[in-house]
Amino acid sequence: MDNVEKYRLKRSQFYNNMDDFWPDLYEKEYSLYGTYSIAHSEVLEINRITARIGQIFSKMASNLRAADDATLRALGIPVESFSVIRMNSIGIDSVIARLDLVKTADGYKLLEINSDTPTFIVECFRVNQLVCDHFNLENPNQSTEADLAQALRRGIIESAKSIGSKYPHVVFTAHAENIEDWNTVSYLKEISQFQSSLCSLDKLVISEDGLYDDTGSRIDVLYRQTYPLEHLVQDIDPESGGNIGIELLNLVKNKKLAIINPPSAFLLQSKALQALIWGIYESEAGTKIFTTEELAWIGSYMLPTYLEADPFLNGRAYIRKPSFGREGDTIEIFDKHGTSQYKEALQTYDMELPVYQELADLPQAEIMTEQGREKLQLLIGSFLICGRASAIGIRAGKGVINNESYFLPVSLKHK
């Protein structure tokens, strides 16, 4: 039996005993059998950078709530959402957010923040521990699951208070046919230890007085795993033709429903916000909004990002991506001469406002997979839970990191 066959057998034996997880996606290997070791000092550095970037975005969220409509439109934020995204009724911009970081020769840099409907949760908070236990390795994410559970309870309790509900009916929802989304909300429901229900997204019923689950019970707090606000505002009932997304936002506006992540998380989701932050950093206005220390963080941890490509025509490679894109969808990479080098096949978000960001090359490592040893690029996912740095994980792939890339568990490097 060669190394590949041994790997496949051991991987199958390990993951087949794991309930409610998806080691394979799209009929391909997803969760790798093994870990990538990282020094404890580097984990602390990732945590520190994550918290600092979180502070920058939180300050911007406060400023954007007071901004005029023209500013919000310039960020590509749908007009239909203006009435709710300025709300900050629970005092938390985002309960669960994930930063995508890349390790460069100049340190870690932020590619983007997923503050509205982040994925990669079960992998980092639960499965990573199981993999580390299996290999008798130390988990850098140890105890983070308890922090996540506490944050969920806080989010639920504060959301219920914001609409005046003492005994809230809490529902976790996702597309039931999507194994990743459904198992993620099932996991979050479980660890929250809050009396709640599961209901498939297509079973929810909306009316003028509230949102109802499949038992006919009115929902007070809705956790929406993959129902992003930019899709929600365009959601049309195929039978009635009614704009059910706008109806749902009106329920939130009128405090007949609370949603998690809260609408304020959507203020941070637009990649155009990174262009705004970078523009402020490069202008004299920077000192009016950020402290000297915060400006240094922006210069250290963020990549030059603009709403046009012109600043890169001085000989720097760059990437164009949609302001609300996900999983590498609709991105295009250009060399230092402005010539396209790669265009993602999926162009779902081609009508959205694009942003242009300096290209950061992802570090590579040779990793064992069912295809043998592969040279893969590594992207760090770092969670921000109620504004505090939390679990980390690695997505590994070739070329652009997208929804077909691997999950690579992490462990602490032995001293």
From TrEMBL:
Pfam families named in the record: GSP_synth (PF03738)
Assigned keywords, A-Z: ATP-binding, Ligase, Magnesium, Metal-binding, Nucleotide-binding
Origin: domain of life: Bacteria
SUPFAM superfamilies (UniProt xref): Glutathione synthetase ATP-binding domain-like, PreATP-grasp domain
InterPro entries the record matches: GSPS_pre-ATP-grasp-like_dom, PreATP-grasp_dom_sf
Signal sequence range: none
Domain spans labelled Glutathionylspermidine synthase pre-ATP-grasp-like: 24-410
Identification of the protein by name: Glutathionylspermidine synthase
Organism: Peribacillus deserti
